[in-house]
Design brief:
Layout lengths: L4 H9 L7 H14 L2 H8 L3 H15 L4 E3 L4 E3 L1 H23 L9 E7 L1 H18 L3 E7 L13 E6 L7 E8 L1 E5 L1 H7 L13 E4 L6 E6 L3 E6 L2 E5 L2 H9 L4 E5 H9 L4 E2 L9 E7 L7 H14 L5
Parallel strand pairs: 3-4, 3-5, 8-11, 8-12
Antiparallel strand pairs: 1-2, 5-14, 6-14, 7-12, 7-13, 9-10
Helix pairs in contact: 2-3, 2-4, 2-5, 3-4
Length: about 325
């Protein structure tokens, strides 16, 4: 069954005393993302029965099954995939209409959805977002922490904060700050295992590896000796820098960590910097978003705020 744009657009135009069809589109789109009626109910603060009711209304109105349900999963049918694309477009338009028709000079309102890594969210973004919300009391934010690669459009994410040397060329990338890495270990670990004096010495140490970045090889550059790559044995790996920081702090080994996360521990003497003359590759913190067109005022305001907050500020 083909779902036409006109058919889905009429969701806005037809009145319904029993069901808000705009909310129904939002519920359906969220179920398509989470693959779970229960998870959608928790995210949207409604019961599972209410989620089921909204989806059933969509299917009844369109005369097509949108979701294939089994005891283990919920997946989109062909008709559901077509309708999801239209619903996402209509939800985006509804958000733009709400923002564009707000009084000039009025307060920012609505909800922004962001994603970033656990470590950056913990160390830097959560405090920044708290301060931003204090400036805009009618605005809501949802932060999804993950190191995965999300489809910003399908998952309705307004802004992704990612640390990279080569951001996705399909997205608009606005640099926020440089991100240096630091090789660190605890004093207790160094007292037992000694201190490496060159990158090759790391082969004899217990190293803590990030599952998605330099798991078995770390690269360094020396001002006189040039670039060197060190093979590192990693008996302990994790997919989050915060976990590796805690392990290093507890004396589990040597970790290559983002400076924004471990500088306070270095200043407090809980971690020590190793190989200070050897610099790991410099990365950049980027704000990524899908398109420059129709950028919501709240997203633009948050972008400008983050650029200003992190400009020239040492972590």
């Amino acid at each position: 069954m083909q779902i036409s744009g006109a058919q889905c657009a009429s969701l806005f135009l037809e009145s319904s005393k029993k069901v808000d069809r705009l909310t129904a589109m939002q519920v359906f789109a969220d179920v398509a993302q989470t693959g779970s009626f229960t998870a959608t109910g928790a995210r949207l603060s409604m019961s599972r029965a209410m989620v089921t009711r909204y989806v059933a209304h969509m299917e009844q109105w369109l005369g097509a099954r949108l979701l294939q349900r089994t005891t283990r999963s919920v997946t989109l049918t062909d008709a559901g995939e077509q309708c999801l694309r239209r619903c996402l477009q209509m939800l985006a338009i509804a958000q733009e209409v709400q923002e564009d028709t707000a009084p000039m000079g009025g307060a920012l309102r609505g909800q922004l959805r962001l994603t970033c890594s656990m470590s950056f969210g913990y160390a830097q973004l959560a405090p920044a977002l708290g301060d931003f919300l204090a400036l805009h009391p009618q605005l809501k934010l949802h932060l999804h922490v993950s190191d995965g690669v999300e489809n910003l459009i399908a998952e309705r994410i307004d802004l992704a904060i990612r640390i990279s040397a080569d951001p996705d060329p399909a997205l608009v990338a606005r640099p926020l700050a440089p991100c240096e890495s630091m090789l660190v270990a605890s004093p207790a670990y160094l007292a037992v295992h000694g201190r490496p004096l060159r990158p090759a010495d790391l082969a004899a140490h217990q190293c803590l590896g990030h599952a998605h970045f330099g798991r078995s090889e770390w690269r360094f550059t020396h001002p006189r000796l040039g670039a060197q790559a060190a093979s590192v044995p990693t008996r302990f790996t994790a997919n989050d820098a915060t976990v590796l920081m805690a392990a290093a702090r507890a004396g589990a080994g040597v970790a290559l960590q983002p400076g924004y996360l471990v500088r306070p521990l270095v200043a407090a003497g809980e971690l020590e910097v190793l190989l200070p003359d050897w610099e790991p590759p410099l990365l950049t913190v980027y704000a990524l978003y899908a398109s420059r067109r129709h950028l919501a005022p709240a997203v633009r305001a948050l972008l400008d705020y983050l650029v200003q907050r992190f400009a020239g500020r040492p972590w």
